[in-house]
Amino acid sequence: MNEETIIMTLISEGGGARAKSLQAIRAARAGDFAKSEMLMREAKYALKKAHNYQTKLIQTEIANQSIPISLLLIHAQDHLMNALTVNELSKEIIENLKERRD
Question: Which positions bear Phosphohistidine (predicted)?
Fold first, then answer.
């Protein structure tokens, strides 16, 4: 897989994970915790996939194969980091919503 495809996958999977995490919060706010958990599993899968591709880029760099730094690569990294942050916050928000329902 070439670097451009990897970068686009990071953007796609990161954006998808972020969206699923936010949908999970909305489902939890509506009291649908089963749907919320399903969406969080889907987000986790997307994050894992993105992380695996990010690891490929890192391994390429470790092997002394230069990776051109581009605005697209930076954008992809931003997407992934944003998705990871939103996902972690989503977990906390959903847990708070569950506790309030008990």
Answer: 75
